[in-house]
Amino acid sequence: MNSAKELMKRPEVCSDELIKFIDDSMNGFRKYKILTTAVKLQLFEYTKDPVSSEELAAKMGCNPEMVPLLCDVLCECGLLVLNGEKYSNTGLTNTYLVSDSPFSQLNYLRDMERSIAMWEKLDEIITNGPVIVDKQSFFGDGIIHSMAENAKCGMLQEVVETVTEDIDFDSSRKMIDLGGGHGLYSIALTGQNENLKAFVFDLPQVTEHTKKYAEKYGTDQVDVIPGNFFTDDIGSEYDIVFSSLNPGGKVPDLIPKIVSALKTGGVFVNRQVPGEDANAMEALNWNMWTFDDTKKSSALYSFENSVSLEEYIDILKTNGFDVFKELDLTDGSRIIFSRKV
């Protein structure tokens, strides 16, 4: 039987760390919902110019008492600013959270809903194993546009500048972009060399989006090759084989195909994230799902037939490549330059 005196007994382990963890987790969720709600209600579209909370509520068709409360939180988050009685977007918001900005991240934000839905099933995944994902549905509108938006925020520019500075780029005439998806890297690279023809090789449902991006940016130097690079021929006589964050870039079985595709002296440019450096949360997130026909390995950004990046580089050296440069980029990825000898 419990006694009143037991209430004065303190736990041996302080609860502060646990309570902080719970509170921080909840606050992170609240911030996410604040942001997604503002986007869903198109709030940032109405605050490009200063507007009062009453005017804003009327434009949004929302409760006039709740809107200023939402706006005040957005001010604390650095997404709105209040001058007098009028709210307006910060530079951060106008750059990334409005629909007409070239750097808009709205597709990326919307694609987070799929990740949220996956994490809500974590107990089922831990019990039954990874969710099997169909490639066609995975590479639908959301993920391709999300990846394109992310790339334009700085990494595309850094990668293109790195590639053009570290190989004999101006004399290159033919390039293939393996698993190139949206094709923005190929589009940007051809924009730096008017004599370069680039081919984006990816799944048929993906290359339909690639063609639309090429049309959007007004280039006729980028074409597509629909297919599966694990099983299909990828062509030959390339000056550059380019691969960016494609897990196939750590699969040794593809190396002979890449060697054959390059001219002698041609360069394999392979950007990868060293998966062995992933933290526990990233590793769990990666292993919560897998494709129906291509299984992933437990290491981040790797398939079941992948090897570590360091081992892959060693294999390149024994299969007809001179690995002449490795560069770490600001996002933690690494570019490996290998010349066919």
TrEMBL record:
Q: Which residues form the O-methyltransferase dimerisation domain?
A: 25-99
UniProt-listed GO biological process terms: methylation
Q: Pfam families from the entry?
A: Dimerisation (PF08100), Methyltransf_2 (PF00891)
Q: Which domain of life is it from?
A: Archaea
* All copies of domain O-methyltransferase C-terminal, residue ranges: 159-264
- Entries under InterPro entries matching the protein: COMT-like, COMT_C, COMT_dimerisation, SAM-dependent_MTases_sf, WH-like_DNA-bd_sf, WH_DNA-bd_sf
Where does the chain cross the membrane?
none
Molecular-function annotations in GO = O-methyltransferase activity; protein dimerization activity
Calcium as a keyword?
no
* Keyword set, alphabetical order: Methyltransferase, S-adenosyl-L-methionine, Transferase
Q: What protein does this entry describe?
A: SAM-dependent methyltransferase
